From TrEMBL:
Top-level taxonomy: Bacteria, Bacillati, Actinomycetota, Actinomycetes, Propionibacteriales
Protein name stated in the entry: Uncharacterized protein DUF3367
Segments traversing the membrane: 161-186, 193-215, 227-247, 259-281, 847-869
Domain of life: Bacteria
Alpha-(1->3)-arabinofuranosyltransferase N-terminal GT-C domain span: 7-219, 234-466
Domain Arabinofuranosyltransferase D third carbohydrate binding module: 547-677
Region (Disordered): 554-576
Keywords, in A-Z order: Membrane, Transmembrane, Transmembrane helix
Length: 883
């Protein structure tokens, strides 16, 4: 009793009042919802829908334990500590009782070893769910070695029940608990009993064994087994028993050597205390008092919205929102992640999210994952995705963004009917599909060529630079792209640019695209693509304003045009110059078109400019003797009127930022008093000079071709994607059969990020639109769709992950052919015909639920055997299995 009380006290001493992140937050936050979803193999709530991972393994005993405490309104942190206490006490009592039964050691060694056994896993930071198999291991062996007169039925049934209570959350560790009992039985030549015991173990575990087999069959590849808990289970119990035995012998040996008999117990007690210290002193990362109210508010707001569509959380984790919200959750794909992280957004991002059935995007600003929050907000703003709700205080971001923000992507539907004429087959990967669909206009759909074979033969074939160069199929189009377009050091909030060298990320191909294209036969291809502004002199020459003040500097912090020296004289308070942090003597030189009488300077600094404010300057007028001047509180520098054309400003002293940080000097605007009319703004709506050759350079097999781009100054300054196309005498490029070297290179301050070679006239045939359809789910494993009439063969696509376990039937009862859409979405081929109702079901779910029911019956049968077959037959009375 004292040992259990000590362990309970230790559990409540660790981060009292706080919830420690565990492997299943939902088990603590909403156990009822968790258990109800665990009753189905298919989970439509998580990551676009998926096969349950290991939720079935929590149905006993962890799930009911947490559900009962939740029903009794026990605070979450107390419920968690009670579970920890149960785990440690079960481990402690199991080893202590086993040592007593086997008569290993003496009372004090049994107590010490039992405490060690319970504490050591927690000392090394193991989660309670991973320690649970180790805690139950003694109880699996205990009935088999009991000295009481019990029947073999009683022994194997109680051992099997103990094994059943381990659950299937960690099958490898659970299986490891069988090693010691199996060795025990076989070493005593109890073969029949061992076989009976194994049968009972299997029967008692059917409730999680059958679901496990179905998950392996229909789910994604399961994660690698957690070997550390399994190894601990396999060797922990034998080591504990051996320690109990040899500690007694060690004490006897010490006494025989005239060492005080209490020395060994005292040393062992000290070791036990040392094992408890890490448990008491540990301060787990991420512990929280309760799930913050703003997450409950965000979940409630999302569930109140009637519009269909899933929720996408722009984070590495969906917790704790996934544990609170009822609306289905989306998965953050690699392509969307790259687009969001780049800080570059346009309507193509919105189109991709709409095709994926995403209605709301949740941005969390309470944690950092290596991506600047500004990049996320910049991408969403450029895509036209507006914020509609926010919750919580300001997060850990450069700007005071609320902790949780919800953005509305716009109307979407959970299903689409894609006419065959709007589908293409893509030779590439799932990440290539969004780029291909966007490059072809964004209004259709795509199937990976491997998924289309034998199901939708004859679709137009689109080759990509990841497609492996299929030489037996003539591509209707070839799409080339830069997979990582990088990120600028200057990100935008409205018209304001916030620059920092730490925000920049290099592109994979900063100078353009260079690929090999293989064609089985000759054809002519039109060329078009997308480009971004390329930082450097060529881009900044496009921003030059004739007759205006110009500026140069000794250094600059960023290469983005918003941070160029000329940004200090462009009448734009959204841009500004910052010196390089390593510049020991930063200076800024302003040059007038012609000499003027000047009589002062005024420095303007935007609140969010990440640079120190000038405090003292040294001024050089046309190379004359410098003068030193102080900068007053309003940023003014006064001096006697001078006639000059060039003013070199050396910054000799600075003021720290508002938060007292020291950073390089920075200036938003420099006003030259007496010549301020020469400070001219760049017209954001001014188009760059339109002429053939102002776009990226196209070179095919060494032959250079020109392209033309239409873009505004704002497109260049804010790094928005702009389109280019082939120009000149050729409207298309004739290509012979064979291998071709295709290069699309940076030119005139623009770098290509995507290029499409499409056969002349391709994509101009179909006028049949893609139709959105509603999806009804009577339960997690079934869905019903009203399919509108179609004048051609079509594909019904549902915004959930593809799984071969789904079967669909049309109104006449015919089974529809399943097909994977876009590399991941569930789809079925629907023949042309009138409006009809399509029903679909995840067929393995029936076996899953039957397995749960069968497992329950088998478990009750094992329990009945344990209760009613207690006594041993008279002829074997007094016989113990320990002989």
């Amino acid at each position: 009793m004292l040992g259990c009380l000590a362990l309970i006290a230790l559990c409540f001493q660790q981060a009292p009042g706080k919830i420690v992140p565990d492997s299943k937050l939902e088990l603590t936050a909403a156990p009822g919802n968790f258990l109800s979803r665990a009753l189905h193999l298919w989970d439509p709530h998580t990551a676009f829908g998926q096969v349950q991972s290991d939720a079935y393994g929590y149905l006993l005993p962890m799930g009911p334990f947490h559900w009962l405490l939740d029903a009794l309104s026990v605070p979450d942190w107390i419920a968690q500590r009670l579970w920890w206490s149960l785990v440690l006490c079960v481990a402690f009592l199991g080893v202590w009782k086993l040592c007593n039964v086997l008569q290993y050691g003496v009372p004090w060694t049994r107590l010490a070893v039992a405490l060690f056994y319970a504490l050591i896993p927690r000392t090394f930071g193991e989660l309670p769910i991973e320690v649970w198999p180790m805690a139950m291991a003694p109880w699996v062996l205990l009935p088999l070695v009991s000295p009481r007169a019990r029947s073999g039925w009683w022994r194997v049934s109680w051992s099997a029940l103990a094994f059943a209570l381990i659950g299937g959350a960690n099958p490898v560790a659970a299986a490891a608990t069988l090693i010691v009992p199996a060795i025990w039985l076989l070493s005593r030549a109890k073969v029949k009993l061992a076989l009976g015991w194994l049968g009972f173990v299997v029967a008692a575990s059917l409730w999680w064994l059958i679901p496990l087999l179905l998950v392996i069959r229909y789910g994604d590849a399961p994660p690698g087994p957690r070997w550390q808990p399994a190894i601990g289970v396999a060797i922990g119990l034998p080591l504990a028993l051996a320690a109990a035995h040899y500690l007694r012998r060690l004490a006897s040996l010490a006494a025989s050597r005239s060492i005080h008999r209490r020395v060994v117990p005292v040393l062992v007690t000290c070791l036990a205390v040392a094992a408890a210290v890490p448990v008491v002193a540990a301060r787990p990362d991420g512990a929280f008092t309760t799930i913050p109210a703003h997450w409950h508010g965000a979940a409630a707001w999302l569930d109140e919205q009637a519009a269909p569509g899933s929720v996408l959380v722009l984070s590495n984790t969906t917790e704790p929102l996934a544990a609170l919200v009822k609306r289905p959750m989306a998965a953050l794909t690699d392509d969307v992640r790259r687009r969001i992280d780049s800080g570059v957004g346009d309507q193509t991002l919105r189109q991709e999210l709409t095709r994926d059935g995403v209605r709301y995007v949740v941005v969390r600003n309470d944690q950092t994952d290596g991506v600047p929050a500004l990049a996320v907000h910049d991408s969403l703003a450029d895509a036209g995705i507006k914020r509609v709700a926010y919750f919580g205080p300001a997060g850990q971001t450069r700007l005071p963004y609320p902790t949780v923000e919800i953005y509305d992507v716009g109307p979407t539907t959970p299903g689409r009917l894609l006419p065959r004429s709007r589908l293409v087959a893509v030779g590439g990967t799932v990440d290539d599909v969004p780029t291909v669909v966007t490059a072809l206009g964004g209004g259709g759909g795509a199937v990976l060529s491997a998924d289309a074979d034998g199901k939708l033969d004859g679709l137009p074939f689109i080759e990509t630079d990841a497609g492996g160069q299929a030489v037996d199929r003539q591509p209707s189009a070839v799409v080339l792209r830069n997979r990582q377009i990088g990120r600028s050091a200057c990100l935008h909030v409205g018209v304001r640019a916030l620059c920092s060298k730490g925000q920049a990320q290099a592109a994979d191909e900063s100078n353009g695209l260079s690929r090999n294209v293989q064609l089985p036969s000759a054809a002519s291809y039109e060329v078009q693509g997308t480009a971004l502004a390329k930082e450097g002199d060529a881009l900044e020459r496009l921003l030059f304003m004739p007759g205006a003040i110009t500026a140069t500097a000794s250094s600059r912090a960023v290469t983005a045009p918003e941070g160029r020296p000329g940004a200090a004289v462009d009448r734009d308070t959204g841009t500004g110059w910052i010196a390089d942090p390593d510049d020991p003597a930063p200076s800024l030189t302003v040059k007038l078109p012609a000499a003027r009488d000047v009589q002062g300077l005024r420095f303007r600094s935007d609140t969010y400019l990440d640079g120190s404010r000038p405090a003292e300057v040294m001024l050089h007028f046309d190379g004359s003797v410098p003068i030193r001047a102080a900068v007053d509180a309003d940023g003014n520098v006064r001096f006697a009127k001078r006639h000059a054309r060039t003013i070199e400003i050396d910054f000799t002293a600075t003021k720290p930022l508002q938060d007292a940080r020291r950073s390089p000097v920075g200036v938003t605007e420099v006003e030259v008093l007496g010549a301020d009319d020469l400070r001219k703004a760049v017209d954001p709506n001014r188009r760059i000079t339109p002429y053939c050759g102002n776009g990226p350079t196209l070179r095919i097999d060494g032959v250079q071709l020109q392209t033309q781009v239409v873009a505004t100054m704002q497109d260049l300054l804010q790094r928005r994607p702009v389109s280019f196309s082939l120009c000149g005498q050729l409207t298309s490029v004739p290509l012979r059969s064979g291998r071709h070297d295709v290069e699309v290179l940076a030119n005139r301050g623009l770098v290509p990020i995507e290029t499409t070679l499409a056969k002349a006239g391709f994509g101009d045939v179909s006028v049949t639109p893609v139709q959105g359809v509603d999806v009804w789910r009577p339960n997690p494993a079934e869905l019903t769709v009203e399919v509108p009439d179609a004048d051609q063969q079509s594909v019904l696509a549902v915004a959930q992950n593809y799984n071969e376990g789904w079967e669909a039937y049309d109104s006449s009862g015919h089974k529809l052919t399943p097909i994977r859409i876009g590399g991941w979405q569930q789809g079925w081929v629907v023949p042309a015909g009138p409006e009809q109702v399509v029903t679909a079901a995840f067929m393995p779910d029936r076996a899953y639920r039957a397995g749960l029911l069968l497992g329950l019956v088998a478990l009750l049968a094992v329990l009945a055997t344990a209760v009613f077959f207690r006594r041993t037959p008279k002829r074997s009375a007094g016989r113990s299995i320990r002989r």
